[in-house]
Amino acid sequence: MESAIDTHLQCPRTLSRRVPDDYRPPFPMWVARAGSGLQQVVMAYLGVQYGQDAQRPAAVAALRHIAGTFEGADGPVHHDLTDHVDDSGHHNLMAVGYWSDPAAFCRWLRSDEVKGWWDADERLADGLGYFREVVTPRADQFETLYAFQDDLPGVGSVMGEISGEISEHGYWGSMRDRIPQSQTDWLQADGNLTIVSGDPGNGGRVVVRGHDNIALIRSGQDWRAAGEEERSLYLDELLPPLEEGMDFLRDNGETLGCYSNRFVRSIDLDGNELDESYNIGHWRSLEHLERWAESHPTHLRIFVTFFRVVTGLEKLRLYHEVSVSDGREQIFEYVNCHPRTGMMRDARPPAGA
Amino acid sequence: MESAIDTHLQCPRTLSRRVPDDYRPPFPMWVARAGSGLQQVVMAYLGVQYGQDAQRPAAVAALRHIAGTFEGADGPVHHDLTDHVDDSGHHNLMAVGYWSDPAAFCRWLRSDEVKGWWDADERLADGLGYFREVVTPRADQFETLYAFQDDLPGVGSVMGEISGEISEHGYWGSMRDRIPQSQTDWLQADGNLTIVSGDPGNGGRVVVRGHDNIALIRSGQDWRAAGEEERSLYLDELLPPLEEGMDFLRDNGETLGCYSNRFVRSIDLDGNELDESYNIGHWRSLEHLERWAESHPTHLRIFVTFFRVVTGLEKLRLYHEVSVSDGREQIFEYVNCHPRTGMMRDARPPAGA
Lengths: 353, 353
Prior knowledge:
Two copies of one chain form a homodimer.
Chain A: E1 32-33, E2 42-50, H1 56-69, E3 78-85, E4 91-99, H2 102-110, H3 112-119, H4 121-125, E5 129-135, E6 142-146, H5 156-159, E7 161-162, H6 174-178, E8 194-197, E9 205-209, E10 214-222, H7 228-252, E11 258-267, E12 273-283, H8 286-295, H9 297-309, E13 317-325, E14 331-335
Antiparallel strand pairs in A: 1-7, 2-4, 2-5, 3-4, 3-11, 5-14, 6-13, 8-9, 9-14, 10-12, 10-13, 11-12
Helix pairs in contact in A: 7-9
């Protein structure tokens, strides 16, 4: 039994863990490990939005373009592709890239291939919407949790190794306890989402400024290799409350501190659905996410079912990753997206503007 | 908004609260207050057990005798009476007394009327079972929580006053955060239940020694004054998962660290049922209670329903009180009770015996 917080990230606590040192979880779970060489990661959600089915070929082509820019030396270590319909009925395709070197990400972002394409007038004129939402958590600002030990998805894919059985799971508050920075910091929100350029109601280019400690959760399900029984477990037992909960957050997030919630389906480069899905939630703070997760009937139903089945899982892969990040290292930019897209929905003009 | 921990019980924390200072609960709740004059309370559960319906008149008479001993100057400040059937099909009547002065309790316990009666050979010969389970938490070792503000039941009745709206509720871990001692202490179990005299399998007199930080929860429902709608809310929505959860704990507590669980009905001196009930649970530690409460489907169902209805409650009164106590100040004594009664079920002879 080891701590979810890797040894090189442990420090003298000023805030205590929620559970005593001799706490033992009721079943095994694992976290991703990286050496001390991994200082900071980049999580980039790069989207293409369209409102009419006829636009799908163009949107898929745009997604393939984005994925193409990943091929160079400064591209992400790992990426995956997703599709989802948002609360306004728009389709959104995303390329989700993970970098282990923020400098490489900067070079990628500033390359002609990326910057030139993003800044081009064609982006305003081709009838599609585009967005990029990027957070850059340091190694002490995120955590992972897997019910399996190999072929890690998401940020785990750039970390490379898996822990032994970890102690901090199976209780409310364990997510916070797994984030190294929580040893000394409450991870509280600082400021509000602010529109610093453009007007969401008018389309065009909009830039939103984030704030410290926006929490980002990716919570995934992979039933590609699942047998009939586990497919049924996922599709018939886990998925219904999951969809209900995620739809609730998508449609009612504003009052809860959930800035954005997307339940996405993994796709291939041709836009075909894979047997993988995940939820991407942006929250005002980890505390807001905690309060919802601990009290909402749909999430408690998911939690109870997970507790019941977790020790029997074979090929059904369930995991999550949660980060907080500094406001100055977040990017939230939109081109011709509808005004409820991403961080725009809850962003306001700066005070005095 | 004030802390559940009264000002005179606050101290510099070595263990942090689970939530940040600016946490605000989603609905109001209150705790009982006593001045700094209240140093320690006595919670005495005094039982009469019988197996045959024909013994009920004798058992009720014994209960009335116990209640009669409360009348003197050294009797409890407050008491109530209960009835329940245990997992072995035995009826148990209890007089539950609260003292605000442990010295008065000691005088009461040592009085001829009480000691003489308890020690008498008739107790072994009259065909009834008897038990007394007493804990004596100091003021920093217990907490209360009420969804109402007047006529407080249980330990609140000896504390006398009600707080303003308190901060520490509405999240898992708030129970611990309301106990003053948790500011500096994990409240961990120390030792095991030990049979120090007698043999539960043989009946007769048995004495069980407790250990530090046994957690005792009394969790109550009072629908005496409820209108039709709130009676239905309690009886049709809250009671079914409550009964299911409490039966589960009664029958499966041993593996969970729940030493004893009794869902009792309040009665009058003639044994007639009142529209009040409460659960009395003894747990190996607060941590064991926390883990069950946060993860068991029945308790989560109760919790979700409570969250949904709490702001609309008018006459339906819901509350709880939770204490930990020092092992040396606990009394667990049994006379001719079946061997699964109270602490006897999980108690073992001392090592080496």
